[in-house]
Amino acid sequence: MSSIEVLEERCVGCELCIKACLYDAIEMRDGIAVIKDNCTLCGACVEPCKFDAIILRQEKREAVELSDYRGVWVVAEQRAGVLHDVSFELLGKGRELAEELSVELSAVLLGSGVEDLAPQLIARGADRVYVVDEPELEHFLDEPYSNVVAELIGRHSPEIVLTGATSMGRSLIPRVAVQVKTGLTADCTGLAIDDKERLLLQTRPAFGGNIMATIICPDFRPQMATVRHKVMSALDADPSRKGEIVREKMDAVLLESKVEYIEFVKDLTQTINIADADIIVSGGRGLGGPENFHLVEELAEAMGGAVGASRAAVDAGWVPYSHQVGQTGKTVQPKLYIACGISGAVQHLAGMQSSKTIVAINKDPDAPIFHAATYGIVGDLFDVLPALTKSLKAEL
Amino acid sequence: MNVLVLIKQVPDTTDVRIDRETNTLIREGVPSIINPFDTYAIEEGLRLRESAGGGTVTVMSMGPPQVEGALREALALGVDDAILLSDRAFAGSDTWATSYTLAAGIRKRGEFDVVLCGKQAIDGDTAQVGPGVAKLLGIPQVAYVRKLTLDGKRCIAERMMEDGSDVLGVPLPALFTVVKEINEPRLPSLKGKMKAKKAEITVWGVSDLEVDDSEIGLDGSPTRVKTIFAPELRTNGIVFQGEVDETVPLLVKELVPILKTEI
Lengths: 396, 263
What we know:
The complex is a heterodimer of chains A (396) and B (263).
Chain A: E1 3-6, H1 16-20, E2 26-29, E3 32-35, E4 54-57, E5 72-75, E6 78-79, E7 82-83, H2 85-101, E8 105-111, H3 118-123, E9 128-133, H4 142-156, E10 160-164, H5 167-180, E11 184-185, E12 190-194, E13 199-206, E14 211-216, E15 223-227, E16 244-247, E17 260-266, E18 279-283, H6 294-303, E19 306-309, H7 311-315, E20 336-340, H8 346-352, E21 357-362, H9 369-372, E22 375-378, H10 381-395
Helix pairs in contact in A: 4-5, 6-10
Chain B: E1 2-6, E2 9-11, E3 16-19, E4 24-27, E5 32-34, H1 36-52, E6 56-62, H2 68-76, E7 81-85, H3 95-109, E8 114-118, H4 129-137, E9 141-151, E10 154-161, E11 164-171, E12 174-178, H5 190-198, E13 202-204, E14 224-229, E15 238-241, H6 244-262
């Protein structure tokens, strides 16, 4: 069993390890660091110790035969015959990784009557598309989708599998990772190759974005990761690119679902899904009431953006939950995020701080939102918003 | 109707920060809370028990002994019993090993109709353990459930997707992960709090579960943390102060090039 130990003769009681611990799992007893039982063996305290007094012993374990696994895969997402942009973005990143590893990039496409979509995936960088086209796969259902992806991994042994961190991807792919017994890292914001070890370095935010962690999967294959929409960049479509389309057949038992798909109900309150929007204008408590939300909507409309909201505005019933940005709402990463009358609680920042440009409009110059902002205006929303809308309309 | 709710105790993430000068963590007495999404799972469990006209709601968690506090909070809300999977051997579990251990705990607990989880935990944000447990138990799952209704022997679940909801008919037993929109959690009653204080919490260690030693804790975890670091700071922003007819044009001057070239 792996274990962690403090070498008492080396520990000087400097408490650096306590500061490095993410879990409050070290305390001082008689001037010596003692590791408590809520330690997760994450190893964050090992390097900060200037006296090499903390030893993390990791059990040697049997690795799968790593060289049997080659190639980078992207599990493409389509809904009602339309490919999700995140699939193209993953192909863009996948292309980079595949070239660095000198292997092929393949896409996996599941659905019913979807083979026509395969050339789009090739145009965006795939060398090969595995297509599983079956009536049972018309709608996204976890059991058949995960069975099929796991089966394909078993047949072809890729070393890396990337999936969009969409509702579908985040529901489907953990099931696959358990099925094939390998590691999975959610919501990566950075993916790179460690040439020496031929490992995928998977960087992701944790603790609401306050900390970044780089995760590896050294002994199991494939190395699996999900990436949110708009984090990676797609290649421009090149229709002249050549690729191979491979139709894969599945046993009927793999396509069975205990769950029955009844119907899809479109969300009519939202014309643009905020998680997909390039521009988001969000309103918060500072708007004072639902009757003033039109100021936010008009600014969004002037730029072709979507409307978001803080938790305060949603909890007050001014705006539906599907618009909520933040820790208990959606995490968004638009190119432009404008926060109007939002003070900037950490929970809100966790949902939008990765946006490219952030604009804060607030009458309180000390509001924490200004610390996250690229640009800010200190002023009264009821004056600033109409003036900004009018002026942008004139310019655009 | 027997419901099992999986919960996690998490630090209230608002207080976890990195000191950029020393690259060490600042934690000023970080309070531990029940993962907010799990409070909706608990509430949904209680509602399912009520609408089925009977049954039990059990909460289960994996973690160090202090997780008992979170389990007592759940008991105060009207949950029937609480099980803690706690053992040094579970330390260092990633989502794979956590799913494996929880699935073993659920198997030992025995019969259940519904397993509920929050859609994700706010410290890790992975959303992976629920689907992992479902796969290991060999039962269907539906993630991101915004509405759950009993329909004879099955449940009708509305799954929140980016563009709307998928409505699904789900035979039981099944696992559901729930979003905030699903309900409004109740507050504990005074009677509930009193009862929770005295309640017995079942604690199972590695020897109580049918698990393979190589599949649990750090050794059973395919992923490893390589490094931990502070995110890049946003370069100092520009804040305009003054009259609207001065500030707005200054902002517009910055925004127009962004809107015209980047979007």
